[in-house]
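Reminder to self: tokens first, then the designed residues, so the page reads top to bottom the way the pipeline ran.
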């Protein structure tokens, strides 16, 4: 049975005082975020992304590493489509590669990770709970189950088995960084786009992206393989938390 799609979020539980507190935690500067204002279908302004509180608990910081923009664009998802554990796995990958001497490479990530779409969810519409095709909070990056004959390399599991049942009700808006075009003299021109900004439309995420073998992919793969042999996923998370450096 084909379920109706919905862009309705449940009313946010995040209030201005919460954002004040999160800013004191150092998650973002206060002038970058705002509450939903009672909206149930998000209406982000130009350059804003819809985010959840627990993304920042999991290590998200804005602006992100450019690698994150490229991953979301390739898999055709946006931040508000993801779960907190997606942020954990992206962070672990970036930290593992850079710690062991390589920049995170998109093709290397595609070789070892896939996007899992959790599918329909129960959505509160007014006073009634219905099973609908919710267009948010449902996608997670997982280690690939089948690698087509390649040796499986995986960072050990290090994420929460269960987040609070209402984690996706703690949502708000954050202003993202825009990319600017430069002319031949290196001067900035008009803004072109905001890579992380949310747009509320039907999404059709890609689950698996075939990687392309390049020199960057080979270097990244060597670093990722080394990291997986000598570090656990927990080690990597503890490292970037202790260092106060968020991938």
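Designed residues (247 positions):
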């Amino acid at each position: 049975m084909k379920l109706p799609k919905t862009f309705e979020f449940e009313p946010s539980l995040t209030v201005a005082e919460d954002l004040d507190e999160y800013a004191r935690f150092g998650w973002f500067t206060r002038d970058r975020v705002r509450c939903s204002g009672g909206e149930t279908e998000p209406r982000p302004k130009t350059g804003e992304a819809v985010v959840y509180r627990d993304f920042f608990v999991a290590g998200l910081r804005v602006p992100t590493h450019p690698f994150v923009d490229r991953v979301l664009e390739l898999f055709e998802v946006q931040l508000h489509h993801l779960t907190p554990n997606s942020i954990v796995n992206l962070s672990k990958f970036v930290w593992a590669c850079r710690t062991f001497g390589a920049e995170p490479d998109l093709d290397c990530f595609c070789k070892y990770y896939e996007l899992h779409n959790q599918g329909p969810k129960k959505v509160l519409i007014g006073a009634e709970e219905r099973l609908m095709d919710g267009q948010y909070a449902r996608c997670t990056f997982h280690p690939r189950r089948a690698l087509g004959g390649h040796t499986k390399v995986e960072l050990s599991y290090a994420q929460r088995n269960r987040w609070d049942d209402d984690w996706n009700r703690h949502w708000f808006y954050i202003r993202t960084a825009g990319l600017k075009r430069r002319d031949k003299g290196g001067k900035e021109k008009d803004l072109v786009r905001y890579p992380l900004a949310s747009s509320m439309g039907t999404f059709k995420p890609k689950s698996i992206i075939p990687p392309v073998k390049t020199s960057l992919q080979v270097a990244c793969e060597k670093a990722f393989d080394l990291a997986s042999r000598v570090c656990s996923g927990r080690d990597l998370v503890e490292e970037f938390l202790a260092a106060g450096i968020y991938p």
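The helical segments are 16-25, 53-57, 66-75, 84-99, 106-112, 215-230, 233-243.
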